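Hi both,

Apologies for the delay on this - the queue was longer than expected. I finally got the glutathione-bound model through. Below you'll find the protein sequence and the ligand SMILES exactly as submitted, and right after that the structure tokens for the full complex including the ligand.
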Amino acid sequence: MIELHTTPTANGYRASIALEETGLAYVSRSYDLVKGEHLAPDFLRLNPVGRVPAIVDRGSGEAPIVVFGTQAIATYVAEKTGRLLPSDPVARAAAHSWAGMVASDAGPAYSGQFVFSRFAPPEQSWGLEHFQKQCHRMLGALETRLAEVPYLAGDEYSIADVLAYPLAAVSALRYPGDLAAYPALRAWAERVGARPAVQRGMRVPA
Ligand SMILES: N[C@@H](CCC(=O)N[C@@H](CS)C(=O)NCC(=O)O)C(=O)O
């Protein structure tokens, strides 16, 4: 059984969608970030950075296996089940490349715009404008890719789509208002959002 340590945010949904898509049995525990529950010693033992999500796999052998960070979690469950990673080497490399882009380029751009829009003094607009430009840059790159192929790795749905979907969903709700300027990305988000496993993952933690 896998324990999922999570929160109802884009990063948390990435992990729960990956678990739902691979069909692994798991239980989830929700953390209240406002109360600082993710900074308690028990969670810092799982991820010393103190960021959710993390998983603990107690079913694989003698010692529990701890994995933290959305890209690592999606890759771990994909490798464990043989799902969500294409076997063709070109498509597999594309899946890893786009998974990395979404986790380490698009994710921080969205976090940056969120933090600056919520907490920076209004007279200091440089930070917010910088991260908004970065968000559009990321959405533009995703749009270019998805105008060419149905999924980020090519023909097959993969970990890259799992990691990208919650950002697209959050984007449609909060920023930049909707995905009207990105028609291929919007069509992809509708396709991915119709998957039952994605819908279940987006409801975790309940
Ligand atoms: N690189 C991490 C980012 C995770 C992340 O930023 N998690 C947020 C919640 S969405 C968090 O724990 N924030 C609390 C904090 O930074 O103190 C990943 O991919 O999992």
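Main takeaway for now: The mean pLDDT is 94.

I'll put the files on the shared drive as well.

H.
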